[in-house]
Amino acid sequence: MKVLLVGEYRDGKILPSTYETVAFARKLGAAAALFLVADPSDLPRFAGKLYLAAAQQCGEYNPEGHLALLLQAVQAEEPDFIVFLHSAYGWDLAPRLALALDLPQISEVVALAEGAFVVPACNGKLRRTLRPLGQRAVLTLQSGAFNADGEPAGTPQVAPLTWAGSAVVELVGYEAASRGAVDLSRAEIIVSAGRGIGKPENLALIEGLATVLGGEVGASRPVVDAGWAPHERQVGSTGQTVAPKLYIACGISGAVQHLAGMKKSGFVVAINTDGDAPIGEVADVLVVADLKQFVPLLTGKLGGV
Amino acid sequence: MKILVCIKQVPDLESRFKIAASGTWYAAEDLAWRLNEYDEYAVEEAVRLREASGEGELVVLSLGPERAGEAIRKALAMGADRGVHLLDPLSHDKDPRQIAGAIAEYARGEKFDVIFTGLQSQDRGSAQVGLLLAGLLALPAVTTIVAFSHEAGLVTVRRELEGGARAVVKVRLPALFTCQLGLNTPRYPTLPNIMKAKKKEVRTIAVTDLPQVAALVRTEKLAFPDKRGAGVVLEGATSEVADRLIAILKEKTTVLK
Ligand SMILES: Cc1cc2nc3c(=O)[nH]c(=O)nc-3n(C[C@H](O)[C@H](O)[C@H](O)COP(=O)(O)OP(=O)(O)OC[C@H]3O[C@@H](n4cnc5c(N)ncnc54)[C@H](O)[C@@H]3O)c2cc1C
């Protein structure tokens, strides 16, 4: 079996997630080649063939250009699977390739199942097993699902690719995420508010618990999107990655993008009315209760300790 | 300007799911249904663009069973001009390529200037339909937008990246955009607008009347994940549960003195 792995490069750097695709190829027991649009003077650590185009000429985000380059690599390599990360780069490019090659795509693979692939459904509450019809497919991998054991190593044999079209979509530049005064990554205790708080006034309950514990307040994305908390408090794949000794998730369902930001926490408590919420999979203690009653009760007891 | 927004009706994710007898999807009974969250942002952005451009029209399209009509009515109440319902009682069995293929069959002749979709649906989350539709219509596409502005046929968007950074991207219309959470603040339909929406046109087209697209993927199974067994489950907002939790925290962590 042969796979073509699609690596990622952004803002002048090869992203470490590239090596997750390498770990996946190993798990699949497949021979792997890597495709990358990057700086040719800074090669990835990879023992195998590297189809490499220069980001200086081809752009970091240039879907039509990257698709044309990928098609060259696919033609040369004839892989069974073309493997992306399920990321802002991968989910943007993979369906374009699948369509161009008339191949099935399976998104956000978390596990293998005898030639089929397991993906999440309903924000992680369920799992689907999907089988591509035919021998070949495009896959995207859930970030963090296939982790490299050990440091990536090796020197690739470079097969250079070139592209001479003009970009349809133009990348003008990048804007950094807003970073405020709080650094959640250093906090020992974080009490996070999710959509389950219901209304912004209830944020005071979360703040009250954080205060008696001497911790910081975190938030899930909907709380930030609604403007109830600033982005610097957001925990997750598009917010902060945190690893406190204690993480208390209040009214948070446990979507994979939220878990990505807090699963390295030492001890996780979840307070949720839904006993089936996926947060239960990572919680050391799941309190099935209405946070509006339970949080003040807990705060009161801790305040008296 | 002629705008299309594609939406999907999904179950409320706080629902208690049951696996359907087929073993490949969830049972539709006893679920509460709503407009896919990502699509709420898509509809809002489309309505804003429609209002700003003054002329033209905004069409809302949903492929799905009978009840998907409720999602179309909601988008009409938010400000879409007319609806198209690609009626498919078996939409849950269709793969992204089949869904995009059916939408493309409808959209091809309509020559839309702008198409908005959600980044993904909340139940399937495959994030493919928007891009496949763009590809089938030979339109440029940008995914994961969290900001959108338009001037004289040139659109500037911000794409959200991991860690919350953004890429500033420009593209000429016609084009398709997939909308990420937080793009805007979706409006609540007002009562007068809900009443008005009832009178707006919704055209129903059976997908069986459109050219058929072959499936590329087969669903073998839908199941609950294996729960990590180690966690303790406590029930109820009671004093005993709070005491129990505090005792566990004192024993298992070093942060409670
Ligand atoms: C590309 C991408 C990036 C993303 N990045 C992030 C990110 O960085 N961070 C992030 O958090 N999300 C992120 N998301 C969004 C993510 O997918 C989820 O939508 C989000 O995490 C859900 O937030 P939530 O758990 O607060 O809300 P919901 O999923 O709506 O869950 C609310 C929970 O509250 C519970 N609840 C309701 N009422 C009560 C009550 N009274 N008491 C107790 N519990 C109650 C419910 O049972 C439910 O479990 C991202 C999504 C995408 C596609």
Model description:
The complex is a heterodimer of chains A (305) and B (257). Chain A is of the alpha/beta class and 305 residues long. Chain A has two domains: 2-160, HUPs (Rossmann fold), CATH 3.40.50; 184-302, TPP-binding domain (Rossmann fold, 3-Layer(aba) Sandwich), CATH 3.40.50. Chain A is built from eight helices and 18 strands. Chain A has helices spanning 18-28, 55-58, 63-77, 90-101, 203-213, 221-225, 256-262, 291-304, and strands spanning 2-6, 9-10, 13-14, 31-38, 49-54, 81-85, 105-109, 111-113, 116-121, 126-132, 137-141, 157-160, 169-175, 189-193, 216-219, 246-250, 267-272, 285-288. In chain A, a hairpin with a 4-residue loop joins strand 9 and strand 10 (126-132). The radius of gyration of chain A is 22 Å and the shape is elongated. In chain A, 54% of the residues are buried. Chain B has six helices and 13 strands. Chain B is globular. Chain B has a single domain (2-209), classed as Rossmann fold (3-Layer(aba) Sandwich). The longest helix of chain B is centred in the N-terminal third of the chain and has 17 residues, at 37-53. In chain B, the strands form two sheets. In chain B, strands 9-8-7-10-6-1-4-5-11 form a nine-stranded mixed beta sheet, with helices on both faces. Classes of the chains: A alpha/beta (305), B alpha/beta (257). Strand 10 of chain A pairs antiparallel with strand 12 of chain B, so a sheet runs across the interface. The complex binds flavin-adenine dinucleotide (FAD). Flavin-adenine dinucleotide sits between chains A (194-196, 220-222, 234-239, 251-253, 255, 257-258, 261, 271-274, 277, 290-292) and B (14, 119, 181).
